[in-house]
Design brief:
Oligomer: heterodimer
CATH architecture of chain A: Orthogonal Bundle
Radius of gyration of chain A: 21 Å
Number of domains of chain A: 1
CATH superfamily of the largest domain in chain B: FAD/NAD(P)-binding domain
Low-confidence stretches of chain A: 74-80
Mean pLDDT of chain A: 90
Distance between the termini of chain A: 54 Å
Number of strands of chain A: 12
CATH class of chain A: Mainly Alpha
CATH topology of chain A: Cytochrome p450
Strand order of the largest sheet of chain B: 3-2-1-7-21-20
Shape of chain A: globular
Bound molecules: flavin-adenine dinucleotide, protoporphyrin IX containing FE
Order of helices and strands of chain A: HHEEHEHHHEHHHHHHHHHEEEEHHEEEE
Mean pLDDT of chain B: 93
Strand order of the largest sheet of chain A: 1-2-8-5-3
Shape of chain B: globular
């Protein structure tokens, strides 16, 4: 079997439920050239090496014109009417935008922001679970995981509660286009996503303007006011950054929660332990990010120089895929990599990427997942999977169940 | 075979003694247990408290964010050790395998680990050092005293010496809104560690943050009032400064006096040991039962011409302690070399400084990423055509890449293109160290492997 067909198999929807044996085969050659000139990197040390390598760009404009995106039907991350956000930029632009966005979000300037959201997150989660009352089966994806991150990002950005419903609709349309589904009218969806994105952009621009005049204690206010003319985001940058936070923190969080519930129901002894010792949630979420990561691979990198690695030369201009889900199961880095071990020591997984693009929202994502999983474990009595494996979304990059039907007997308070 | 047997017997029921109960001592003891040492373990330390961490002392502690007694080192595992804290080791009887304590007790050992670290170099004139208001910073007690005085709001603080500790102290003082003068003998702060090019950035950072920085001067005298309180400092350029606090940041002295006359190769620069952490005796012959780790050790590094490096780096103390402990209970081919690539960090004036390799060995420097003028950059150091070090200001996430270049002796200046390379990153400039002490042209040695058990050397002899 050739490597090219191996990658095709990984992308093949038929293998979405369990791509891990294919990753194991891919790891036999740490760096391989795939069809379309894509270089796939599948082993832990090679991936971390490249994540810290300044000869690798995240800016698609550095791709050689003749280099395609490879075999993946990539949906353009950014529409042409908005400039790229910092996930698709390199230093120094990346660093400037990320620094300004971080100021009101995390250390050193705002170390308590995420911590202070705990009560709010718990309230949101409780509300979503309260709505299960009177039912004996729910879809963890549609009834729980989907609404949660959007509500959170609304609170973070400072979207007024009365606008939240509209925000949910836009968010859904925008992220729906990230899941390329050839069966269900993709062009229509792409058009709807574009429309939603411009409406969302206009809305955020208006809200940002309001906040500039009357700032509150939210991210939009902080990002618009800035610190001196040098250190300020332009109005367009505020909008692209806000949209980035919404998109980057949405499907990923949905997947983490859904993958988490699925994994716990497949490991009932761990579910029981989580119920008895909620502190377990912290390492358990780390292990989830290693074992069933919401982001399976990073397909956006490009070499800006010839790079010698693991016996191969990646030529300048070539697209690079960092298969982080494979790296996190590399037996040369993790003992017993295919086992789910919530208290795994030294768990430096690749679930949040690494290097300068390391997930901006990681502390928030961790807290969201910890609270969601702990509360679900605590309140659902005798939960069980209705189908295993569940139906997956088509997207091989942001991989997760499309539905996750769970039956239960009782609902604790 | 006999040696193998000895290590095995020791592992099962030997007596290990660790002198120096701080970072290196604690991590070594934990590694001993982790790797299956079931004998008895004695920890001897002259500080009367549980092992604690020093880097926060000049950072969060001085700012009042963490109390001076709040930096206890996290424990990796239970030790089941006998602790002798608050009493110093006063002598070593190598032949009789005994450590003599200051209170007269004698502690016998089968294998010994020396981890007595270093202490702050005091102000050279004792009467002046004793003035109320003159401080050093090495221990938690030092930090408690200094923090208390800074919180009382002195009118001006004088920092003597602009190395890392001095610069961090100055930074903390400015953050507290205190007036600070820094006096540095060299042409710029950090110049000994990072060279003149990067030192100039450090100088600008200090001045931009309101430090009264005076380079090229020395402090000649500290003057007190009748009550013995510091009042004034005199500088070599004739200036006199009214100060009520002076912090001496003139580096560290290795704690080796207790080994005087023991027959070990111990001196002011540390205890010499091989790459396997075994101490040398005065004849330069390696001992079998005495090991060394941390700031007190001086060991040859293959990547740097087999020069003996003495490092005052947190990461080195941990890595060397782990290797020393492993080797104490292993023999022959199971022993590992300490091949740690020097690395350290510092936080000052809002900037995270990180370094890998040995910058002072560098003769040239290229700013490969970012720009000096923006205080955000990576500076790569070359020595005789290969990478030898890299220093990052607020760009630390890239340093693993440079670590790889240093370990593989990659050619310098770099021929590749990379992100964020500016025009001043196209040509190397002299790294500008005050007193270059360069090793001679030697063989090329490269490192490979990721985990400690995989680390290997490749040795390429120099062309004749
Ligand atoms: C203020 C400060 C800030 C620092 N910041 C950084 C930083 O940012 N980054 C970095 O990489 N490194 C930093 N360091 C360096 C780092 O803390 C040291 O490298 C590390 O502490 C070395 O550990 P050690 O165990 O070898 O030695 P030490 O920590 O010096 O421990 C030696 C111990 O042995 C004891 N001892 C000495 N003599 C005897 C005796 N005869 N008998 C019994 N006990 C004895 C000592 O009292 C001490 O407790 C900093 C150090 C200081 C002081
Ligand atoms: C479980 C949830 C999440 C996972 C698994 C995840 C994963 C990742 C990964 C792998 C990257 C690296 C992308 C790259 O290198 O190209 C990334 C970047 C990013 N993430 Fe997350 N993420 C999650 C949640 C969030 C949340 C909640 C937010 C927002 C609040 C967020 C915001 C971002 C941003 C802004 C970036 C770009 C960072 C940069 O380019 O510097 N993420 N995330």
């Amino acid at each position: 079997m050739t490597q090219a067909t191996l990658l095709q198999q990984i992308l093949d929807y038929a293998n979405r439920a369990d791509p891990y044996p294919l990753y194991a085969e891919l790891r036999r050659t740490p760096v391989t050239r795939q069809e379309g000139g894509v270089y796939a990197v599948s082993t832990y040390w090679e991936i971390t090496g490249l994540l810290h390598d300044p000869r690798i760009s995240s800016d698609a404009r550095n791709r050689a014109p003749q280099a395609g995106a490879g075999p993946l039907p990539v949906v353009p991350q950014e529409e042409t009417d908005l400039p790229p956000s910092f996930i698709g930029l390199d230093p120094p632009e990346h660093d400037r935008l990320r620094r300004l966005a971080m100021r009101p979000f995390g250390p050193p300037h705002t170390p308590r922001r995420v911590h202070d959201m705990r009560a709010e997150l718990t309230r949101t989660v409780s509300g979503l679970i309260d709505a299960f009352q009177g039912r004996s089966e729910v879809d963890i994806v549609d009834d729980f995981a989907y609404p949660f991150p959007v509500t959170v990002i609304c609170r973070l950005l400072g979207v007024p509660r009365e606008d939240e419903a509209r925000f949910h609709i836009w968010a859904e349309a925008v992220v729906a286009a990230l899941d390329p589904d050839p069966v269900e009218g993709a062009p229509d969806r792409a058009r709807a996503a574009r429309r939603a994105r411009s409406e969302l952009g206009l809305y955020l621009a208006g809200l940002a303007e309001e906040r500039r005049r009357a700032p509150g204690d939210d991210l939009l206010s902080a990002m618009t006011s800035g610190h001196g003319p040098e250190e300020r985001l332009s109005p367009v940058e505020v909008v692209t950054t806000a949209v980035l936070l919404l998109i980057a923190g949405h499907e990923t969080t949905v997947n983490l929660i859904a993958n988490g519930v699925l994994t716990l129901l497949r490991h009932p002894e761990e579910l029981k332990r989580l119920r008895d010792e909620p502190g377990l949630a912290v390492p358990l979420v780390e292990e989830l990010l290693r074992y069933e990561p919401p982001v399976q691979l990073l397909p956006q990198r490009t070499a800006v120089a010839d790079i010698d690695i693991a016996g191969t030369t990646i030529p300048r201009g070539a697209p690079i895929w960092l298969v982080v889900a494979s790296g996190s199961r590399d037996p040369r880095r993790f003992a017993d990599p295919d086992r789910f071990l919530p208290e795994r020591p030294d768990n430096q997984h690749l679930g949040f990427g690494g290097g300068v693009h390391y997930c901006f929202g990681a502390p928030l994502a961790r807290l969201e997942a910890q609270i969601a999983l702990t509360e679900l474990a605590r309140r659902l009595g005798e939960p069980r999977l209705v189908e295993d494996p569940p139906p997956y979304r088509r997207n091989p990059v942001l991989r997760g169940p499309r539905h996750l039907r769970v039956a239960f007997d009782t609902l604790a308070r | 075979m006999a040696a193998d047997g000895a290590a095995e017997v020791f592992r099962r029921r030997g007596h290990a003694v660790v002198v120096g109960a701080s970072l290196a001592g604690l991590r070594a003891a934990e590694t001993l247990r982790e790797e299956g040492f079931t004998g008895t373990l004695t920890m001897i330390g002259d500080e009367p408290r549980d092992p604690y961490d020093r880097p926060p002392l000049s950072k969060q502690v001085l700012l009042g964010r963490v109390p001076a007694d709040g930096t206890e080192l996290p424990r990796r595992r239970a030790l089941d050790a006998r602790w002798r804290l608050g009493v110093a080791a006063a002598g070593l009887d190598l032949a009789g395998r005994r450590v003599r304590l200051a209170d007269g007790e004698e502690v016998a050992f089968d294998r010994l680990l020396i981890a007595t670290g270093a202490r702050a170099r005091p102000w050279f004139r004792e009467s002046e050092a004793a003035l109320d208001g003159v401080f050093v910073l090495r221990t938690a007690d030092d930090a408690a005293r200094l923090t208390r005085r800074l919180a009382a709001g002195p009118r001006r603080v004088l920092v003597v010496g602009a190395g890392f500790t001095g610069s961090e102290i100055a930074s903390a003082c400015r953050e507290r809104g205190l007036e600070v003068t820094v006096a540095e003998r060299g042409p710029a702060p950090l110049v000994g560690a990072l060279g003149g090019v990067v030192g100039a950035v450090a100088a600008r950072l200090q001045r931009d943050h309101g430090v009264d920085l005076r380079c090229g001067v020395t402090v000649t005298a500290l003057e007190g009032d009748l009550a013995g309180r510091l009042r004034r400092a005199h500088l070599s350029d004739g200036a006199a400064l009214d100060v009520d606090v002076a912090v001496i940041g003139l580096g560290a002295i290795r704690n080796t006096e207790w080994l005087t006359g023991s027959g070990l190769a111990a001196g002011p620069r540390g205890v010499a040991c091989d790459a396997g952490c075994r101490a040398f005796d005065v004849h330069g012959i390696v001992t079998d039962d005495v090991f060394v780790a941390g700031d007190v050790a001086r060991s040859p590094h293959p990547l740097f011409g087999y020069q003996f490096l003495s490092l005052e780096h947190w990461g080195n103390a941990v890595a060397q302690a782990e290797v020393a402990a492993h080797n104490m209970i292993s023999s022959g081919l199971d022993r590992r070399p300490h091949l740690w690539l020097p690395a350290f960090w510092s936080a000052q004036f809002g900037v995270n400084v990180k370094s890998v390799g040995v910058p002072p060995l560098g003769d040239e420097l290229v700013v490969t990423q970012g720009a000096l003028a923006e205080n955000r950059f990576v500076a790569a150091y070359g020595f005789q055509g290969r990478f030898i070090a890299a220093v990052a200001f607020d760009q630390g996430r890239w340093l693993d890449f440079y670590r790889g270049l240093i370990e593989s002796a990659a050619p310098f200046p770099p021929a590749f293109t990379n992100l964020d390379r500016r025009t001043d990153g196209t040509r190397p400039v002299p790294a500008d160290f005050p007193d270059p002490s360069l090793p001679t042209h030697g063989p090329t040695v490269t490192l490979s492997g990721y985990s400690p058990s995989e680390r290997r050397l490749r040795f390429t002899p120099a062309p004749a």
